[in-house]
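Thread: Sugar transporter SWEET1, structure

OP (GT): Posting the sequence first so everyone is looking at the same thing. Length is 175 residues per the record. Can we get the structure tokens written out before standup tomorrow? I want them in the notebook alongside the other entries.
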Amino acid sequence: MRAFHPLNLSWLSYGLLKGDKTLIVVNAVGAFLQTFYMLTYLHYCPRKRTVLLQTAALLGVLLLGYSYFQLLVPDWTSRLRQLGLFCSIFTISMYLSPLADLVKIIQTKSTQCLSFSLTVATLLASASWTLYGFRLRDLYIMVPNIPGVLTSLIRLGLFWQYRQVQEKSYSLLQT
């Protein structure tokens, strides 16, 4: 985990504004699971201070965005449009973040720094949300998830091209 990605929290806010119960339930569960993952990661992470600072900074951005929409955008239609754009930016940044390791993958010719299961899960989730947005004709759901499909396909191509070398940081037991 490089930083906190408030995808589910931003989509939860969007669902609350639109009154879409599917968005509310799915993303409330997602927000809970992401929080649980973050706390577990933080517990085992050797660089706790860095991770806490990154998380706090991004939670601050999320809080500022929420405050902006609540206090400075009184018109409901404008608030909904701007919140959709805000959520879209967070979603796109989440999907593009794994590509930061692209140079390292090409230099080492190894996909060890990527998670295959997370890549497949991201492909399935982003494709599902893209289709759901397409079905609703909602660009704020459909468009931000398209980069998730594309970056997942790029990462799957990297897994196909470069093997995933396992580290031998464990000692073998003598029999």
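GT: Both are above now. Quick notes for whoever picks this up: The chain has one domain: 7-161. The radius of gyration is 18 Å.
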